[in-house]
């Protein structure tokens, strides 16, 4: 049984005890060490990962050979290369642990079977995708409408505990500025 997963799902849909048991059978627990690669470009994404413990990041390497973080995943968050999953093509991103992590893998084959067995799970995943899409839209809006200092202040206000867990250079990458700029901001005690 995976209580973190079940509790998260039950925030969005109703489940019977039988449904809970069935759902858990479709997931596989994966344990990763700190800084371990889960996915790299050129490989097929194995499925959707639900983070039960730890912290992961999704990133690509741009043409200047800089890592550009596009998403973090911490406890009770989902992470995957959706383009690879949906289009059955090699991934273009990396997924790597930042901390030692435990993730529940729902393979694409198992996701399809799960939807047939517990149909309300399709509603749950629709909500998760909508929430992820909204988060992406907001992030793009922040990048276009806020200066670097405003973006940093806003993000740290929303996720103060998370900011303490992430190395400074990774936070800078995610927020779209250099680690040096972030150091200057922190020195100003913003």
Automatic annotation (TrEMBL):
Domain Cyclic nucleotide-binding as annotated: residue spans: 30-115
Coiled coil: none
Pfam families listed in its UniProt record: cNMP_binding
SUPFAM superfamilies, alphabetized: cAMP-binding domain-like
Protein name according to UniProt: Crp/Fnr family transcriptional regulator
């Amino acid at each position: 049984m995976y209580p973190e997963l079940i509790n998260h799902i039950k925030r969005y849909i109703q489940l019977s005890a039988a449904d809970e048991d069935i759902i858990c059978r479709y997931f596989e627990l994966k344990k990763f060490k700190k800084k371990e690669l889960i996915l790299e470009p050129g490989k097929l994404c194995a499925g959707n990962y639900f983070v039960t413990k730890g912290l992961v990041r999704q990133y690509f390497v741009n043409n200047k050979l800089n890592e550009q973080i596009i998403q973090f995943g911490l406890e009770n968050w989902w992470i995957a290369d959706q383009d690879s999953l949906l289009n059955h093509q090699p991934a273009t991103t990396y997924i790597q642990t930042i901390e030692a992590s435990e993730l529940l893998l729902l393979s694409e084959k198992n996701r399809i079977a799960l939807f047939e067995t517990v149909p309300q799970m399709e509603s749950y995943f629709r909500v998760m995708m909508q929430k992820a899409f909204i988060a992406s839209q907001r992030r793009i809006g922040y990048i276009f409408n806020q200066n670097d200092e405003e973006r940093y202040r806003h993000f740290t206000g929303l996720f103060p505990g998370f900011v303490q867990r992430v190395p400074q250079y990774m936070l800078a990458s995610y927020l779209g500025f250099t680690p040096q700029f972030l150091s200057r901001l922190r020195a100003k005690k913003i």
